[in-house]
Specification:
single chain; 175 residues; alpha+beta; three-stranded antiparallel β-sheet; globular; disordered C terminus
């Protein structure tokens, strides 16, 4: 239970640091999305982005076109995202529609978010990136219990990837 209190504090510190260092004046990211990490949100801002597969930490997972891991949020349903407001600043929704790249065999679709924007889905799971993934191939958000639920990498099979242990932050293979 101690980890649940430490992780949000760390995320808040990162968000404040990012907000202070980089204000996005382009304004193309949409309402409520202050672009906390240009790396994780830039490829999801295009009209028709590509979702592809990659092997990360021993699992074949979905990534955006730049290789950033895509996540699902346990409290979501196939028709509704439950990550809005400040949650969406840490877990930017993948803008829909998207197209399937190499290795993607599931069903891609979209939902309409509470703010009216369109979010991509995979096998009924709304898709997100994570601001702490700063380079392709990272999966720092897998297994985190934040914002009212658990976050998982989305595997090509459409199921959640195994959660990493709470102390695996310094582990070598991400599991």
């Amino acid at each position: 239970m101690r980890y649940r209190w430490l992780a949000p504090a760390g995320l808040a510190a990162i968000a404040l640091t990012i907000a202070a260092c980089g204000s996005s004046s382009t304004g193309s990211a949409g309402s409520g999305s202050a672009s906390p990490s240009a790396a994780s949100t830039s490829s999801s801002a295009s009209a028709t982005a590509v979702v592809k597969s990659a092997k990360i930490g021993g699992a074949t997972v979905l990534t955006n076109a730049k290789g950033f891991t895509l996540y699902s949020f346990a409290p979501d349903t196939s028709t509704k995202s439950n990550c809005n407001g400040s949650c969406a600043s840490y877990w930017p929704p993948v803008k829909g529609p998207v197209t399937a790249g190499a290795g993607v065999t599931g069903t891609l679709g979209t939902i309409t978010r509470s703010d009216g924007s369109t979010q991509a889905t995979y096998d009924g799971h709304p898709l997100y990136t994570f601001v702490q993934d700063s380079a392709p191939g990272q999966a720092k958000g897998n297994g985190l219990n934040l914002s009212g639920g658990v976050w998982h990498e989305v595997t090509v099979s459409g199921s959640a990837a195994p959660a990493s242990s709470p102390s695996s932050g310094s582990g070598g293979n991400g599991y």
